[in-house]
Give the backbone structure.
Amino acid sequence: MKRARRLAVVVAGVTTLAGVAACASSSSNDDKGRSAANAGPLDPNTKVSITVGCQPPKSSKALRQEWNNDVAAFEKLHPNITIVSKDAFPCEDPKTFTAKLAGGQMENVYYVYLTDAKNIIENGQAADITNYVSGVKNYKYLQPQLLNVFKGGGRLWGLPKTNYSMGLLYNRKLFQQAGLNPDQPPTTWDEVRADAKKIAALGNGIVGYADYSANNQGGWHFTAEMYSQGGDIVTPDGKKAAFNSPQGRAVLQNLQQMRWTDNSMGSKQLLQISDVQPMMASGKLGMYLSAPDNIPTIKDQFQGKFEDYGLAPMPGAQGTLIGGDGYMFNRKDTPDQIKAGILWLEFENLTPGKGQFDWAQKAIDKQPVGLPQPNIFTGPPAAEELQVRTQNANLPVQNYKAFADGDPKVKYRLEPPQAQQIYAVLDGVVSSVLTNRNADINSLLSKAETKVNGILANAD
Protein backbone atom coordinates (compact mmCIF):
# COMPACT_ATOMS: atom_id res chain seq x y z
CA MET A 1 0.00 0.00 0.00
CA LYS A 2 3.79 3.51 -1.58
CA ARG A 3 4.48 6.76 -3.03
CA ALA A 4 7.04 7.51 -5.72
CA ARG A 5 8.58 9.91 -3.28
CA ARG A 6 11.45 8.77 -1.12
CA LEU A 7 11.05 7.73 2.50
CA ALA A 8 14.75 8.36 3.10
CA VAL A 9 14.14 10.27 6.31
CA VAL A 10 14.58 9.52 9.97
CA VAL A 11 11.43 7.94 11.31
CA ALA A 12 10.87 8.99 14.88
CA GLY A 13 9.97 5.97 16.94
CA VAL A 14 11.25 3.48 14.36
CA THR A 15 14.98 3.83 14.79
CA THR A 16 14.57 3.12 18.47
CA LEU A 17 13.35 -0.37 17.65
CA ALA A 18 16.81 -1.44 16.57
CA GLY A 19 17.92 -1.82 20.15
CA VAL A 20 14.82 -2.88 21.99
CA ALA A 21 15.40 -6.61 21.73
CA ALA A 22 18.96 -6.94 22.97
CA CYS A 23 17.72 -9.28 25.67
CA ALA A 24 15.35 -11.30 23.48
CA SER A 25 15.73 -14.99 24.16
CA SER A 26 16.13 -15.73 20.46
CA SER A 27 19.26 -13.57 20.16
CA SER A 28 21.49 -15.91 22.15
CA ASN A 29 25.10 -16.47 21.18
CA ASP A 30 24.28 -20.10 20.37
CA ASP A 31 21.65 -19.00 17.87
CA LYS A 32 24.01 -16.51 16.27
CA GLY A 33 26.73 -19.10 15.95
CA ARG A 34 24.37 -21.70 14.55
CA SER A 35 23.00 -19.19 12.04
CA ALA A 36 26.47 -18.16 10.90
CA ALA A 37 27.59 -21.75 10.53
CA ASN A 38 24.68 -22.61 8.24
CA ALA A 39 24.38 -19.34 6.34
CA GLY A 40 25.71 -20.41 2.96
CA PRO A 41 23.47 -20.65 -0.12
CA LEU A 42 20.79 -23.32 -0.18
CA ASP A 43 22.08 -26.51 -1.78
CA PRO A 44 19.97 -26.78 -4.96
CA ASN A 45 19.82 -30.56 -4.46
CA THR A 46 18.32 -30.24 -0.98
CA LYS A 47 14.59 -30.87 -0.83
CA VAL A 48 12.80 -28.36 1.38
CA SER A 49 9.13 -27.79 2.13
CA ILE A 50 7.90 -24.58 3.77
CA THR A 51 4.51 -23.29 4.78
CA VAL A 52 3.86 -19.63 3.90
CA GLY A 53 1.07 -17.49 5.29
CA CYS A 54 -1.26 -14.94 3.72
CA GLN A 55 -2.21 -16.59 0.45
CA PRO A 56 -5.10 -14.42 -0.84
CA PRO A 57 -8.50 -15.91 0.03
CA LYS A 58 -10.69 -17.66 -2.55
CA SER A 59 -12.99 -14.64 -2.60
CA SER A 60 -10.14 -12.62 -4.20
CA LYS A 61 -10.02 -14.71 -7.36
CA ALA A 62 -7.51 -12.70 -9.40
CA LEU A 63 -5.09 -12.17 -6.51
CA ARG A 64 -5.27 -15.82 -5.49
CA GLN A 65 -4.61 -16.96 -9.06
CA GLU A 66 -1.64 -14.59 -9.30
CA TRP A 67 -0.26 -16.04 -6.06
CA ASN A 68 -0.71 -19.61 -7.29
CA ASN A 69 0.95 -18.76 -10.59
CA ASP A 70 3.86 -17.20 -8.70
CA VAL A 71 4.23 -20.34 -6.59
CA ALA A 72 4.31 -22.47 -9.73
CA ALA A 73 6.91 -20.20 -11.36
CA PHE A 74 9.04 -20.19 -8.21
CA GLU A 75 8.92 -23.97 -7.85
CA LYS A 76 9.93 -24.34 -11.50
CA LEU A 77 12.91 -22.09 -10.78
CA HIS A 78 13.69 -24.01 -7.57
CA PRO A 79 12.41 -27.56 -8.23
CA ASN A 80 13.49 -28.92 -4.83
CA ILE A 81 11.55 -26.28 -2.85
CA THR A 82 7.87 -26.87 -2.14
CA ILE A 83 5.66 -23.96 -1.10
CA VAL A 84 2.63 -24.92 0.97
CA SER A 85 0.34 -21.90 0.93
CA LYS A 86 -1.86 -21.07 3.89
CA ASP A 87 -4.74 -18.67 3.37
CA ALA A 88 -6.56 -16.68 6.02
CA PHE A 89 -8.60 -13.51 6.14
CA PRO A 90 -7.48 -11.35 7.77
CA CYS A 91 -3.94 -12.63 7.35
CA GLU A 92 -3.15 -11.69 10.94
CA ASP A 93 -6.31 -12.43 12.87
CA PRO A 94 -6.05 -10.71 16.28
CA LYS A 95 -8.33 -13.40 17.75
CA THR A 96 -5.84 -16.19 17.05
CA PHE A 97 -2.48 -14.61 16.23
CA THR A 98 -1.11 -14.26 19.77
CA ALA A 99 -2.16 -17.78 20.74
CA LYS A 100 -0.62 -19.28 17.60
CA LEU A 101 2.63 -17.44 18.27
CA ALA A 102 2.76 -18.58 21.88
CA GLY A 103 2.04 -22.15 20.83
CA GLY A 104 4.67 -22.21 18.10
CA GLN A 105 1.97 -22.88 15.51
CA MET A 106 2.86 -20.23 12.97
CA GLU A 107 3.82 -21.04 9.40
CA ASN A 108 7.51 -21.40 8.57
CA VAL A 109 7.22 -17.97 6.95
CA TYR A 110 4.46 -16.02 8.67
CA TYR A 111 2.77 -12.71 8.00
CA VAL A 112 2.93 -9.82 10.48
CA TYR A 113 1.89 -6.20 10.77
CA LEU A 114 4.83 -3.84 11.25
CA THR A 115 3.42 -2.80 14.62
CA ASP A 116 3.71 -6.35 15.98
CA ALA A 117 7.33 -7.01 15.03
CA LYS A 118 8.77 -5.37 18.15
CA ASN A 119 6.86 -7.59 20.58
CA ILE A 120 7.58 -10.71 18.55
CA ILE A 121 11.31 -9.96 18.69
CA GLU A 122 11.25 -9.16 22.39
CA ASN A 123 9.41 -12.39 23.15
CA GLY A 124 11.82 -14.55 21.15
CA GLN A 125 9.10 -15.73 18.75
CA ALA A 126 11.01 -15.37 15.48
CA ALA A 127 14.11 -16.87 13.94
CA ASP A 128 17.26 -14.81 13.48
CA ILE A 129 17.78 -14.34 9.72
CA THR A 130 20.71 -11.93 9.88
CA ASN A 131 23.22 -14.27 8.25
CA TYR A 132 20.86 -15.42 5.50
CA VAL A 133 20.06 -12.21 3.62
CA SER A 134 23.42 -11.35 2.07
CA GLY A 135 22.37 -12.93 -1.22
CA VAL A 136 19.14 -10.94 -1.55
CA LYS A 137 19.85 -8.70 -4.52
CA ASN A 138 17.80 -5.68 -3.44
CA TYR A 139 18.31 -5.98 0.31
CA LYS A 140 20.60 -2.95 0.53
CA TYR A 141 18.00 -0.87 -1.33
CA LEU A 142 15.08 -1.58 1.02
CA GLN A 143 13.74 1.48 2.80
CA PRO A 144 15.89 1.66 5.96
CA GLN A 145 13.03 2.61 8.24
CA LEU A 146 11.11 -0.47 7.15
CA LEU A 147 14.07 -2.74 7.79
CA ASN A 148 14.62 -1.14 11.19
CA VAL A 149 11.21 -2.39 12.26
CA PHE A 150 12.53 -5.94 11.95
CA LYS A 151 15.80 -5.30 13.77
CA GLY A 152 16.55 -5.88 17.42
CA GLY A 153 19.66 -6.56 19.44
CA GLY A 154 21.77 -5.85 16.38
CA ARG A 155 20.09 -8.71 14.50
CA LEU A 156 17.48 -9.04 11.71
CA TRP A 157 14.26 -10.96 12.30
CA GLY A 158 12.10 -10.35 9.24
CA LEU A 159 11.64 -8.63 5.88
CA PRO A 160 9.08 -6.02 4.78
CA LYS A 161 6.36 -6.68 2.21
CA THR A 162 4.38 -3.45 1.79
CA ASN A 163 4.10 -0.04 3.39
CA TYR A 164 1.59 2.77 3.44
CA SER A 165 1.43 6.34 4.61
CA MET A 166 -1.62 8.43 5.36
CA GLY A 167 -2.74 11.27 3.13
CA LEU A 168 -5.86 13.26 2.29
CA LEU A 169 -8.29 11.55 -0.07
CA TYR A 170 -10.64 14.01 -1.77
CA ASN A 171 -13.43 14.13 -4.31
CA ARG A 172 -12.25 16.06 -7.35
CA LYS A 173 -15.77 16.44 -8.72
CA LEU A 174 -17.02 18.08 -5.51
CA PHE A 175 -13.98 20.35 -5.47
CA GLN A 176 -14.91 21.59 -8.93
CA GLN A 177 -18.56 22.05 -7.98
CA ALA A 178 -17.51 24.08 -4.93
CA GLY A 179 -15.29 26.35 -7.05
CA LEU A 180 -12.07 24.77 -5.75
CA ASN A 181 -9.12 23.68 -7.89
CA PRO A 182 -8.86 19.87 -7.72
CA ASP A 183 -5.21 20.12 -8.80
CA GLN A 184 -4.42 22.25 -5.75
CA PRO A 185 -5.68 20.31 -2.71
CA PRO A 186 -5.36 21.83 0.77
CA THR A 187 -1.95 21.68 2.41
CA THR A 188 -2.80 23.04 5.88
CA TRP A 189 -5.55 22.26 8.34
CA ASP A 190 -6.87 25.81 7.99
CA GLU A 191 -7.25 25.18 4.26
CA VAL A 192 -8.96 21.84 4.93
CA ARG A 193 -11.44 23.64 7.17
CA ALA A 194 -12.10 26.37 4.59
CA ASP A 195 -12.51 23.89 1.72
CA ALA A 196 -14.74 21.60 3.78
CA LYS A 197 -17.03 24.53 4.53
CA LYS A 198 -17.36 25.39 0.83
CA ILE A 199 -18.07 21.77 -0.10
CA ALA A 200 -20.69 21.34 2.63
CA ALA A 201 -22.38 24.53 1.37
CA LEU A 202 -23.32 22.62 -1.80
CA GLY A 203 -26.12 21.11 0.28
CA ASN A 204 -28.05 17.97 -0.67
CA GLY A 205 -26.57 16.07 2.26
CA ILE A 206 -22.96 16.60 1.16
CA VAL A 207 -20.36 16.47 3.94
CA GLY A 208 -17.19 18.51 3.56
CA TYR A 209 -14.90 16.45 5.80
CA ALA A 210 -15.43 13.20 7.70
CA ASP A 211 -13.43 11.59 10.45
CA TYR A 212 -13.56 8.30 12.31
CA SER A 213 -14.55 8.09 15.96
CA ALA A 214 -15.48 4.45 16.64
CA ASN A 215 -13.98 0.95 16.87
CA ASN A 216 -10.50 2.33 17.72
CA GLN A 217 -10.38 4.08 14.34
CA GLY A 218 -10.93 7.48 15.92
CA GLY A 219 -7.78 7.02 17.98
CA TRP A 220 -5.91 5.88 14.88
CA HIS A 221 -6.88 9.03 12.95
CA PHE A 222 -6.22 11.24 15.96
CA THR A 223 -2.69 9.81 15.94
CA ALA A 224 -2.26 10.61 12.25
CA GLU A 225 -3.51 14.15 12.83
CA MET A 226 -1.18 14.59 15.79
CA TYR A 227 1.80 13.55 13.69
CA SER A 228 0.73 15.97 10.96
CA GLN A 229 1.01 18.82 13.47
CA GLY A 230 4.34 17.66 14.85
CA GLY A 231 2.88 16.14 18.01
CA ASP A 232 3.42 12.78 19.71
CA ILE A 233 1.14 10.18 21.23
CA VAL A 234 3.74 8.88 23.67
CA THR A 235 7.10 10.12 24.89
CA PRO A 236 10.21 8.95 22.97
CA ASP A 237 10.87 6.21 25.54
CA GLY A 238 7.29 4.96 25.21
CA LYS A 239 6.68 5.30 28.95
CA LYS A 240 4.23 8.22 29.14
CA ALA A 241 1.39 9.76 27.16
CA ALA A 242 2.35 12.89 25.22
CA PHE A 243 -0.89 13.92 23.49
CA ASN A 244 -2.13 16.27 26.24
CA SER A 245 -0.27 19.04 24.47
CA PRO A 246 -0.80 22.12 22.30
CA GLN A 247 -0.87 19.87 19.24
CA GLY A 248 -3.48 17.60 20.80
CA ARG A 249 -5.68 20.56 21.64
CA ALA A 250 -5.21 21.96 18.13
CA VAL A 251 -6.37 18.69 16.54
CA LEU A 252 -9.51 18.56 18.67
CA GLN A 253 -10.28 22.27 18.36
CA ASN A 254 -10.13 21.99 14.59
CA LEU A 255 -12.57 19.06 14.63
CA GLN A 256 -14.81 20.88 17.10
CA GLN A 257 -14.94 23.97 14.90
CA MET A 258 -15.64 22.04 11.70
CA ARG A 259 -18.34 20.00 13.41
CA TRP A 260 -20.18 22.65 15.40
CA THR A 261 -19.21 26.11 14.05
CA ASP A 262 -18.95 25.33 10.33
CA ASN A 263 -21.38 22.38 10.17
CA SER A 264 -19.08 20.89 7.54
CA MET A 265 -18.84 17.37 9.04
CA GLY A 266 -22.50 16.43 8.96
CA SER A 267 -24.72 15.38 11.84
CA LYS A 268 -24.02 11.64 11.69
CA GLN A 269 -20.99 10.76 13.77
CA LEU A 270 -19.34 7.71 15.37
CA LEU A 271 -18.18 6.87 11.87
CA GLN A 272 -15.63 4.28 10.81
CA ILE A 273 -14.12 3.25 7.51
CA SER A 274 -17.14 1.19 6.47
CA ASP A 275 -19.29 4.34 6.74
CA VAL A 276 -16.95 6.78 5.05
CA GLN A 277 -16.00 4.81 1.93
CA PRO A 278 -19.58 4.54 0.60
CA MET A 279 -20.08 8.25 1.34
CA MET A 280 -17.11 9.04 -0.87
CA ALA A 281 -18.28 6.64 -3.58
CA SER A 282 -21.76 8.17 -3.70
CA GLY A 283 -20.45 11.72 -4.10
CA LYS A 284 -21.60 12.79 -0.63
CA LEU A 285 -18.17 13.41 0.92
CA GLY A 286 -15.45 15.90 0.07
CA MET A 287 -12.43 14.71 2.08
CA TYR A 288 -11.14 12.23 4.64
CA LEU A 289 -7.76 10.86 5.76
CA SER A 290 -6.74 7.72 3.94
CA ALA A 291 -3.97 5.59 2.52
CA PRO A 292 -3.96 5.00 -1.26
CA ASP A 293 -5.42 1.50 -0.93
CA ASN A 294 -8.84 2.98 -0.12
CA ILE A 295 -9.26 4.09 -3.73
CA PRO A 296 -9.65 0.59 -5.28
CA THR A 297 -11.99 -0.40 -2.44
CA ILE A 298 -14.23 2.61 -3.08
CA LYS A 299 -14.38 1.67 -6.75
CA ASP A 300 -14.75 -2.11 -6.43
CA GLN A 301 -17.04 -2.40 -3.40
CA PHE A 302 -19.06 0.79 -3.69
CA GLN A 303 -19.05 1.53 -7.44
CA GLY A 304 -17.08 4.75 -7.28
CA LYS A 305 -15.13 6.07 -10.27
CA PHE A 306 -11.34 6.26 -10.22
CA GLU A 307 -11.31 9.58 -12.06
CA ASP A 308 -13.34 11.26 -9.29
CA TYR A 309 -10.67 10.91 -6.60
CA GLY A 310 -7.45 12.70 -5.80
CA LEU A 311 -4.85 12.07 -3.14
CA ALA A 312 -2.78 14.71 -1.35
CA PRO A 313 -0.18 14.59 1.43
CA MET A 314 -1.23 14.97 5.04
CA PRO A 315 -2.11 18.60 5.79
CA GLY A 316 0.39 20.30 8.03
CA ALA A 317 3.42 18.61 6.43
CA GLN A 318 5.16 17.93 9.75
CA GLY A 319 4.59 14.20 9.85
CA THR A 320 2.44 11.34 8.71
CA LEU A 321 1.56 7.93 10.05
CA ILE A 322 2.98 4.91 8.26
CA GLY A 323 2.25 1.23 8.52
CA GLY A 324 2.52 -1.93 6.55
CA ASP A 325 3.37 -5.57 6.82
CA GLY A 326 6.04 -8.16 6.28
CA TYR A 327 7.12 -11.69 7.04
CA MET A 328 9.00 -13.31 9.90
CA PHE A 329 10.25 -16.86 10.35
CA ASN A 330 9.15 -19.53 12.79
CA ARG A 331 11.54 -19.95 15.69
CA LYS A 332 11.68 -23.70 14.94
CA ASP A 333 12.68 -23.34 11.28
CA THR A 334 15.73 -25.22 10.09
CA PRO A 335 18.49 -23.28 8.31
CA ASP A 336 17.35 -24.76 5.00
CA GLN A 337 13.77 -23.64 5.63
CA ILE A 338 15.00 -20.11 6.36
CA LYS A 339 17.04 -20.11 3.15
CA ALA A 340 14.08 -21.36 1.12
CA GLY A 341 11.77 -18.82 2.74
CA ILE A 342 14.08 -15.94 1.95
CA LEU A 343 14.34 -17.08 -1.68
CA TRP A 344 10.53 -17.06 -1.85
CA LEU A 345 10.20 -13.63 -0.25
CA GLU A 346 12.80 -12.23 -2.63
CA PHE A 347 10.86 -13.63 -5.58
CA GLU A 348 7.39 -12.64 -4.41
CA ASN A 349 7.90 -9.37 -2.52
CA LEU A 350 11.31 -7.85 -3.18
CA THR A 351 11.88 -7.86 -6.94
CA PRO A 352 10.52 -5.23 -9.37
CA GLY A 353 8.56 -6.89 -12.17
CA LYS A 354 7.83 -10.08 -10.20
CA GLY A 355 5.30 -11.20 -7.63
CA GLN A 356 3.51 -8.28 -6.02
CA PHE A 357 5.35 -5.93 -8.40
CA ASP A 358 4.37 -7.75 -11.61
CA TRP A 359 2.42 -4.73 -12.81
CA ALA A 360 2.16 -6.01 -16.38
CA GLN A 361 0.28 -9.11 -15.23
CA LYS A 362 -1.87 -7.14 -12.83
CA ALA A 363 -2.92 -4.84 -15.66
CA ILE A 364 -3.89 -7.90 -17.72
CA ASP A 365 -5.88 -9.18 -14.74
CA LYS A 366 -7.60 -5.78 -14.47
CA GLN A 367 -6.10 -5.14 -11.04
CA PRO A 368 -5.49 -1.46 -10.18
CA VAL A 369 -2.05 -0.30 -11.30
CA GLY A 370 -0.68 3.18 -10.71
CA LEU A 371 -1.24 3.91 -7.03
CA PRO A 372 1.80 5.55 -5.44
CA GLN A 373 2.24 2.76 -2.93
CA PRO A 374 3.70 0.32 -2.01
CA ASN A 375 7.14 1.79 -2.39
CA ILE A 376 9.62 -0.22 -0.37
CA PHE A 377 12.79 0.47 -2.37
CA THR A 378 15.40 3.18 -2.72
CA GLY A 379 17.92 3.66 -5.51
CA PRO A 380 17.86 1.73 -8.81
CA PRO A 381 15.12 -0.78 -7.79
CA ALA A 382 12.83 2.12 -6.85
CA ALA A 383 13.35 3.71 -10.27
CA GLU A 384 12.82 0.37 -12.03
CA GLU A 385 9.63 -0.42 -10.11
CA LEU A 386 8.23 3.05 -10.75
CA GLN A 387 8.96 2.80 -14.46
CA VAL A 388 7.18 -0.55 -14.83
CA ARG A 389 4.25 0.65 -12.71
CA THR A 390 3.89 3.83 -14.78
CA GLN A 391 4.09 1.94 -18.08
CA ASN A 392 1.26 -0.37 -17.03
CA ALA A 393 -0.89 2.14 -15.15
CA ASN A 394 -4.64 1.82 -15.61
CA LEU A 395 -5.50 4.51 -13.06
CA PRO A 396 -5.39 8.32 -13.42
CA VAL A 397 -1.94 8.66 -11.83
CA GLN A 398 -1.97 12.43 -12.32
CA ASN A 399 -4.66 12.60 -9.63
CA TYR A 400 -2.14 11.33 -7.07
CA LYS A 401 0.75 13.58 -8.09
CA ALA A 402 0.60 15.80 -5.01
CA PHE A 403 0.80 12.75 -2.75
CA ALA A 404 3.47 11.02 -4.83
CA ASP A 405 5.70 14.10 -4.93
CA GLY A 406 5.30 14.67 -1.21
CA ASP A 407 7.71 16.65 0.89
CA PRO A 408 11.16 15.16 1.61
CA LYS A 409 11.23 16.90 5.02
CA VAL A 410 8.12 15.12 6.31
CA LYS A 411 8.75 12.64 9.12
CA TYR A 412 7.20 9.22 8.68
CA ARG A 413 6.01 7.79 11.98
CA LEU A 414 4.90 4.36 13.13
CA GLU A 415 1.94 3.75 15.39
CA PRO A 416 2.62 4.06 19.14
CA PRO A 417 3.27 1.06 21.41
CA GLN A 418 0.12 -0.59 22.75
CA ALA A 419 -1.59 1.10 19.83
CA GLN A 420 -5.01 -0.55 19.97
CA GLN A 421 -5.43 -0.01 23.71
CA ILE A 422 -4.44 3.63 23.32
CA TYR A 423 -6.75 4.06 20.33
CA ALA A 424 -9.67 2.75 22.37
CA VAL A 425 -9.07 5.51 24.92
CA LEU A 426 -8.65 8.20 22.28
CA ASP A 427 -11.83 7.05 20.53
CA GLY A 428 -13.72 8.38 23.49
CA VAL A 429 -12.00 11.75 23.25
CA VAL A 430 -12.70 12.20 19.54
CA SER A 431 -16.27 10.92 19.74
CA SER A 432 -17.04 13.29 22.64
CA VAL A 433 -15.83 16.28 20.64
CA LEU A 434 -17.89 15.25 17.61
CA THR A 435 -21.11 14.41 19.49
CA ASN A 436 -21.13 16.96 22.32
CA ARG A 437 -21.12 20.64 21.37
CA ASN A 438 -19.92 21.55 24.86
CA ALA A 439 -17.18 18.95 25.18
CA ASP A 440 -14.32 20.15 27.42
CA ILE A 441 -11.18 19.40 25.42
CA ASN A 442 -8.76 20.01 28.28
CA SER A 443 -10.65 17.69 30.60
CA LEU A 444 -10.96 14.99 27.93
CA LEU A 445 -7.23 15.05 27.21
CA SER A 446 -6.32 15.03 30.90
CA LYS A 447 -8.50 12.02 31.69
CA ALA A 448 -7.26 10.17 28.61
CA GLU A 449 -3.67 10.91 29.61
CA THR A 450 -4.20 9.24 32.98
CA LYS A 451 -5.72 6.15 31.36
CA VAL A 452 -2.97 5.81 28.77
CA ASN A 453 -0.24 6.25 31.38
CA GLY A 454 -1.80 3.28 33.18
CA ILE A 455 -1.79 1.21 30.01
CA LEU A 456 1.87 2.00 29.34
CA ALA A 457 2.86 1.30 32.95
CA ASN A 458 1.16 -2.11 32.88
CA ALA A 459 2.90 -2.98 29.63
CA ASP A 460 6.34 -2.94 31.30
